[in-house]
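ok trying again, last paste got cut off:
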Amino acid sequence: MGYSPPPQNPKHLPASSFFLPPSPAIPRVPPRLSAGLLRQATYTTTRLGIYSVLLERFGGADGTPPPFLAKAAMGMTAGAAGAFVGTPAEVALIRMTADGRLPPGERRGYHNVFDALVRMAREEGVFTLWRGCIPTMARAVVVNAAQLASYSQSKQFLLDSGHFRDDILCHFCASMISGLVTTAASMPVDIVKTRIQNMRTIDGKPEYRNGLDVLLKVVRYEGFFSLWKGFTPYYARLGPHTVLTFIFLEQMNKWYQRLFLTA
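nice, full thing came through this time. structure:
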């Protein structure tokens, strides 16, 4: 169980821990929530924006979408770029989450994500903001290649079947399929990432040499399908997230085209 700080009177909290001046009528924004929101605002908008631009750029002149492998390559590019842009917010989020488990004397005490970013850059150097960038980008490449490409391909398949129109029902079904594919593709990567982050040192040697060693040992000692252990709850979390992401994206694209491109 994580550390739960005792309740405090909002009037005694530092003003920098608020996005707005303290007021009984305005709820305080939790520090970790600010980091999570900034991560989504940087990572998600970057990857979706780049993928949409690439999809339009490399599509046919008659509106024909590119082939699946090209979509996967676009998803990988968008995911890597989004992860690079979103890494500072993710580093701040990880630190702020872990802060509550540290002894009181070792806590960093970031008031919000902007305080965390400024202090990390000032106290440890700007490059600290991109610590762990490579594995984060590697995971994003796999996840986005699966999520973005499978959504576009599923949507194209549903429209070509003649049973769907380009509406919210089609977007919902395509995004549920995308969530399923993304869950299957990302769970082994997440297992590797988690095992490496939590590995022990045995007799002076690390428990795993690299990501491939993690996969081989998990399959050998725990079974092949243990790579997808907890599939149902993972999909229950990722499925709705994927549905909302693509439904909102499609609606915003339609409003953008209606307001700015057809005016």
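cool. The helical segments are 31-57, 68-99, 113-124, 133-160, 168-197, 211-222, 231-261. Residues 1-22 have pLDDT under 50 and may be disordered.
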